[in-house]
Specification:
Length: about 400
């Protein structure tokens, strides 16, 4: 069984890929004695490399490979080199790492291995400058400003969010859903908005909830939409990217800091504990200022990336067993596919849960920032309730 059929199994297993425009390219045949796959090559499966390639960024949306036919959507490549200046072109010029274009090459595992390059410096998917003979030119510095699939998918999610909220808002402006039952997109969005308002905003922020509703709703839907898009085979796992969750965590930290009042800082510099314990607790409270948003970042990142890794691991096991025996690979494939689909269904639920938890904990931490001392215990109890979800 070929490792290149990996994503084909994913597409067949989930059957949710919906494409209206895609690019079908003809892969160049491997030269004889070069990269043509042998039984030994098929057995040399690198599970970690396959998983990291799938959950990492790329210069294209790769949906499947069938024999020598590759279905993908190439993305713009924007490069700057002090020696060569600016260069912009589509990623299809690289022909999936098989060709050099404009003095640049997209690194692949085969190229790195065949040229004995340091895998730590020359990672798979990196664009490097090359000499006329095709070897890497380390003297040319390359700055990659390309629109990778993570960035493109976030832009798509923003457009989807604007479209969803815009279509619902237009109906409300026309009076639909005000004096009559909501219809269309309103019927889907309104219960969620009411839930976030009542169970997240009002519970944690009290009378000030309206001031933060735009933030909480944006966080919830932005995470949810990106999580759903990331479940489409060939798409980017944006929510499982530490840069994505880090940006949301920094945003939450800024909002928390701007929401603080005198009670917040008095609680930190003068905690209500015996004098001998105060120095230790003050240090703990100061660390807590930074550990709260950090917890948001790591929790979302770990939960969203783990599901993808588990799904990919089940699919990779098919090829691991297939490398040992073709019959064993085909025989175990139904079981592993069913397990992958089962985890996939759970991931749909996890997407809602993690979007809710991030929005709820943000509201809790903001509420702690402007509440007085006597309300801190209530908020801490609510945090524990949220974390048990």
């Amino acid at each position: 069984m070929s490792v290149r059929g990996f994503k084909s199994i994913l597409v067949a297993a989930f059957s949710i890929v919906s494409m209206f425009f895609f690019n079908v390219s003809q892969a160049q045949p491997k030269p004889a004695g070069g990269a043509a796959r042998t039984e030994k090559d098929s057995a040399a499966i690198n599970p970690s490399g396959i998983i990291l390639e799938h959950i990492g960024d790329a210069h294209e949306f790769h949906f499947w490979t069938f024999r020598h036919h590759i279905a993908s959507i190439p993305l713009p490549v924007i490069l700057y080199s002090p020696q060569k200046g600016w260069s912009a072109f589509m990623a299809s010029r690289f022909e999936h790492g098989e060709r050099t274009y404009d003095g640049y090459r997209l690194l692949t595992e085969e190229y790195v291995a065949s040229h004995h390059l340091d895998e730590k410096l020359y990672k798979n998917g990196r664009v490097v400058a090359v000499n006329p003979d095709g070897t890497v030119d380390p003297t040319v510095k390359v700055y990659d400003f390309s629109l990778g699939r993570n960035v493109v998918q976030m832009l798509i999610s923003i457009l989807i969010l604007i479209w969803i909220m815009g279509s619902a808002a237009r109906k409300y402006r026309k009076g639909e859903g005000v004096t009559s039952a909501p219809s269309g997109m309103q019927g889907v969005i309104e219960p969620i908005v009411i839930f976030i308002r009542d169970e997240v905003g009002k519970v944690n922020l009290g009378d000030k909830y309206e001031k933060y509703m735009s933030l909480l709703l944006t966080i919830f839907f932005f995470i949810l939409i990106n999580a759903f898009l990331g479940l489409i085979p060939g798409s980017a796992n944006v929510v499982g990217n530490i840069a994505f969750t880090g940006a949301l965590g920094v945003l939450a930290f800024i909002v928390i800091m701007f929401s603080t009042g005198k009670h917040y800082w008095l609680h930190i510099i003068n905690p209500p504990v015996p004098v001998g314990v105060k120095p230790i607790l003050i240090l703990v409270e100061i660390l807590g200022i930074f550990t709260k948003p950090f917890a948001l970042i790591i929790r979302l990142f770990a939960n969203m990336i783990s599901g993808h890794i588990i799904i990919l691991s089940f699919i990779i096991l098919i090829f691991v067993f297939g490398a040992m025996s073709t019959g064993l690979g085909w025989g175990t494939s139904p079981f592993f596919i069913l397990m992958a689909v089962f985890i996939y269904m759970i991931e749909l639920l996890v997407a809602f849960i993690q979007a809710y938890i991030f929005a709820a904990l943000t509201a809790v931490f903001v509420g702690l920032a402007f509440e007085s001392h006597q309300h801190h215990d209530d908020h801490e109890g609510h945090v524990k309730e949220i974390l048990t979800v």
